UniProtKB/TrEMBL annotation:
InterPro entries: Glyco_trans_34, Nucleotide-diphossugar_trans. It comes from Viridothelium virens. GO terms for molecular function: alpha-1,6-mannosyltransferase activity. It holds the Pfam family Glyco_transf_34. Residues 1-20 are annotated as: Disordered. PANTHER family: ALPHA-1,6-MANNOSYLTRANSFERASE MNN11-RELATED. GO terms for biological process: protein N-linked glycosylation. GO terms for cellular component: mannan polymerase complex. This is Glycosyltransferase family 34 protein. Keywords: Glycosyltransferase, Membrane, Transferase, Transmembrane, Transmembrane helix. Coiled coil: none annotated. The chain crosses the membrane at residues 32-50, 136-157.
Amino acid sequence: MHFAFPPRKSSHPPPYAVRSSRSSPLLRRQRLRNWGLLATLAVFTIFLLSRYSGTGGSEKIPSGTPPCVIVTIIDQEAPSAFIRAIKDNRNDYAARHGYGTFFPNVTDYNLDDAPFTWSKVPAMRHAMTLFPYSTYFFYLTSFALIMNPSISIEAHIMDRERLETTMLVEKPVVPPDSIIKTFPNIRGDKIDFVLTQDREGLSQDSFVIRRGEWAKYFLDAWFDPLYRSYNFQKAERHALEHIVQWHGTILAKLALVPQRILNSYLRDPSGGTEGVYAEGDFVVNFFGCDLAGDRNCEEEMTPMITRWREIRDRRGY
């Protein structure tokens, strides 16, 4: 059968056509909302990466900022001549390299009845507040002397290639047989914390930290009230060994270097000779002089203070 006219279209379009025309604005709004969420997530990710990737290559550092700050805690009850000698030692070295110095008092910080030796941790955090753009912070106990002023922190310790040559890899963190060892194959520019160890464990008398969010996290973790109240036998030293072994995020940023690079002992109480000071070493540490009742730090350090002054005054040094 043939129709004279084509079949009339229904005046009631299929339901999907109505739904399609009415839902398209909703779909567009949903897509915009999804894109907005993705953009927000991307911005947040970039923010986190910029905060936790170190000092940041694009950071503008104000003119005159010291690249390194030397931190030494002073006991104001020590003889004034001794305090003056320690400050002179650091200030002379800092002036040669354009560094800053910071000398807080041992009683400046609330330690909640913990030993005064803990004060080094908040002192380093304090220094980072006072020098917010400096790259390195070098802590050195007051019972040590800088003996080779020609050595710089950047070239001698923190240079990437230098670190990759000197860092001790797959080394037990706590000698002699800790199952936790330093990581192998870490790039030098990823290291933010450099220190040494002696025969008994990690030494926190001389160490360098690179400024950044990780450094703040590390110092805050080390200074946790739980560790200060735990009554470790060797206070902050044992606390440091604990967090390094139990927190991979800390161990991954740590480098151990040979003791004579950063922390030579005038004499090693354990009888070792590997880390004993020799002329030309960067630092001499009178380790244990403040702990043994038959030793006197000021008396032991006087001959080396005299020697340091000879080195300081040597023409052309």
